[in-house]
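ok here's Chorismate dehydratase, seq below lol
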Amino acid sequence: MKELQHATTIGKISYTNAWPIYHFFEPAALTYPAELITEVPARLNERIQEGTLDLSAMSSFAYGMASDRLLLLPNISVSSQGEVKSILLFSKEPIDSIGNRTIALTNTSATSVNLLKVIMTKFYEGKPDYITMEPELEHMMENADAALLIGDHAIKASWADHHYFVYDLGELWYQYTGHSMTYAVWAVSRSLADNNGEAVQEIVQAFYNSKTASLRDLAPVVKQAIQQIGGSEAYWYAYFRNLVYDFGENELQGLQLYFRYAHELGLMEHEVQVDLWNENKLIRVTE
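and the structure came out like this:
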């Protein structure tokens, strides 16, 4: 194992949708020392902005907020071309009837919350009141007309017996824009990229290898999902195969549009310049 001043701290999303990226990722097998830290997206976002993580999965919105200090890693993301199946709006009424009602938001991800705000404002011309709550559907619905859940909370709620209207935010985004939507990206601090390019390259390759191995044989990931969350093999195979784990031109265009809308609505303080890392060379992306 090669020497670094400290072990590279790597953030891991606790949600199921990122499991294929991490399933075969072994920090102990890396040449350079590394430590894997598992948190919900909101906490990972905070830690990479605080500087207590060197490289991490993070919500796309949080990356945009801190893009001046970060570089996007190529070829990995959690995206969808249409429905995502785990970012769901549950509503007592049809979505076009809740533009001026109250919507309860999950307290666990900035990307999904702001995607909903873009959708409600841009596509439905609504101005709902938003309240933030713990992600528990029935309690949220006692206090609001609709509720946004993400990740495993959304999946479990979608299996429950209820009479709510259910809207998939990935599907709504695609219907109105024709673009894919990227929910999570992997980013590295510019300082680590500048000073330890070989370590970053090794980590990027290890993530890519894990993704490739997982998608070649989803059985171990599906088995883990059933054991930890429930559901059927058929559900989980369909779920993982539906998601897009690449980050190419399609994903880039959709993400840039999301950032543009967020900035226009005042949700993003500044315009986002997406910079990609590639073998320790900066690739500046222009629209």
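fwiw The radius of gyration is 19 Å. kinda neat tbh
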